[in-house]
Design brief:
Number of domains: 1
Helix content: 55-70%
Number of strands: 2
Largest sheet: 2 strands, antiparallel
Oligomer: single chain
Number of helices: 8
Radius of gyration: 22 Å
Shape: flat
Distance between the termini: 56 Å
Order of helices and strands: HEEHHHHHHH
Strand order of the largest sheet: 1-2
Length: 172
C-alpha cells in the first residue's frame, strides 16, 4: 500500500465504536483460563438471533434446492440422507448450542419448516431444532463437566442437582 493510500485511509477513517470484547486466556501448564467481559456486566448483554436465523434459512433453502435436484436424478435414499446430513443440516445446526434456546418462536417455526421440507424430500421424519439443540447442549455440558480446566467446570459442578445427575447418567 502506498503512502498516499495510507494517508487517505487515515484521514477518512470512521469513528470506531468501543467493543466489549470477550477475552479468553488459554490455560497453560495446568492453570485454568478466565472469561472476562470488560466494561459491561454479563447479565446486561441481550442477544437477538433473528438476522442469524434469516441467513441460516436462506442458506438452508439453497441447499434444499440441491437436495431436490439430487432426488430428481433418482439418487438412492442413503446418498440423499448423507447429502442432507453433510450439507443441509450442517448449515442449519451450525452453533445451535449458542443460539438454540434463545430463538424466537417465529424463527424456530421457520427452521422447523425447512427441516420438515427436507424430511419430505428424504421420506423420513427428521429431528426438530429444539431436539437437536437440547441433545447438543447436554453433550456440551457433559464435556465441560469432564474437563477440569474448563472455566465453567467449577460453576457447573457446584450447581449440580439430582436431576442433572440422572440426565448425565442416562447419556453415558
Amino acid at each position: 500500500m502506498s503512502q498516499k493510500q495510507r494517508s487517505w485511509l487515515w484521514k477518512n477513517r470512521k469513528q470506531r465504536t468501543r467493543l466489549n470484547a470477550v477475552t479468553i486466556r488459554r490455560y497453560r501448564s495446568g492453570h485454568c483460563g478466565q472469561l472476562q467481559v470488560p466494561g459491561r456486566p454479563l447479565g446486561t448483554i441481550k442477544l437477538d438471533w433473528t438476522t442469524n436465523t434469516d441467513a441460516i434459512y436462506k442458506k438452508g433453502q439453497s441447499r434444499l434446492f440441491f437436495l431436490r435436484r439430487l432426488r430428481s436424478f433418482n439418487v438412492c435414499r442413503t446418498m440423499l440422507q448423507m447429502f442432507y446430513h453433510s450439507v443441509v443440516s450442517s448449515v442449519i445446526f451450525y452453533s445451535v448450542v449458542c443460539w438454540g434456546s434463545r430463538l424466537k418462536t417465529v424463527d424456530t417455526k421457520r427452521l422447523n419448516k425447512l427441516i420438515r421440507r427436507a424430511g419430505s424430500v428424504l421420506g423420513v421424519e427428521l429431528e426438530s431444532v429444539v431436539e437437536v439443540s437440547e441433545r447438543r447442549m447436554l453433550r456440551k455440558l457433559l464435556s465441560i463437566m469432564d474437563n477440569v480446566c474448563h472455566p465453567l467446570h467449577a460453576t457447573l459442578t457446584s450447581c449440580q442437582s439430582s436431576f442433572s445427575l440422572q440426565t448425565t447418567k442416562e447419556l453415558h
